[in-house]
Amino acid sequence: MASPHDAAARPRGRPAPARWLVAVILCATLLTMAPPASAALLSQDEEIRIGRQAAAEIEAEVGLVRDPALVARVVTAGRRIAAVSDRRNLPYAFKVLRGREVNALSLPGGFIYATEGLLRFVQSDDELAFVMAHEVGHVAARHHVTILERHFALALLARLLTGGDPSASQIADIARFFVTRGFSREFEFEADRRGVTYAHRAGYDAAAGLVFMQRLRAAEGRDPSQFEVLFRTHPGLVDRMQRVREHLRRLGYRIAARLFEARVSPPVLH
Fold first, then answer.
1. Which of 154, 169, 221, 248 has a 20 to 30 Å separation from 208 between CA atoms?
2. 5 is a domain residue
3. Coil, strand or helix: which one is 16?
4. Which one-letter DSSP state was computed for residue 204?
């Protein structure tokens, strides 16, 4: 316990030593409690700022496709989906990344990408809309925020609490994480459910998502290198297909008796 003499000895006007460390220690304590996404430590503004910086990192590293027709397809589908999502106030951006891999990814704050390979693989705008809706689903469910809090929060919040931006190395690590590691099975299931719902709300044939997954599963064996990124970051495809099928039925879609049958009929939208 400090004595009155200790307090008197401290120069007036001088802040308590390392006061900001108290906040960092508090953050570390909160991390051990594994807070849910609904109790976010990061504000929405911070989420967007981190996402924008990570997007710049990925775009500089991988490169963007500027073909107007390809970009327009992604932007059109993405905006329609975002407009019916559960987080419609975010500054969504939809772009096309270079690369033959069949993949899509999302970043904090609503920065979403499709690859050239994905655009060559999808057979309809309905399929593309489902993929975009899946990525919007991750954003709407704040999955990125949860990951940032669990894996990066101590160092990240230390900088934010002192008024700074994440360092270049932190941003590079965040971008690398979302490109290479992806989400848990539980997060993928939730993003699929939201993806089906958002595609349906936006007026697309949400059943195209099941057809897309079926073709992915068949194509994986023919060219593993082309699909390894998608399958690495989107695990449990068979289980996901079953859940998508069940959710489509709840929405009124008529699904063929066989689990992975491609014959599906959408309900009449009112």
1. 221
2. no
3. coil
4. S
Half-sphere exposure of 137 (CA within 13 A, CB side): 24
> Measured between alpha carbons, how far is 241 from 261 in angstroms, rounded to an integer?
11
The CA-to-CA distance between both ends of the chain, in Å, stands at: 71
Give the span between the Cα atoms of 85 and 72, in whole angstroms: 20
Domains of the chain: total: 1
Cβ atoms of residues 166 and 50 within 8 Å: yes
Calculate the CA 42 to chain-centre distance: 15
Number of Cα atoms under 13 Å in the Cβ half of residue 1: 2
Where does residue 163 rank: exposed (0-12), middle (13-18), buried (19+ CB within 10 A)? Answer: exposed
Q: Is residue 103 part of a domain?
A: yes
Residue ranges making up the domain that contains 244: 19-265
14 is a domain residue: no
- What is the token pair recorded at 116? 């050239």
Dist CA 242 CA 45 (whole Å):
36
Between strands 93-97 and 264-265, the pairing is: unpaired
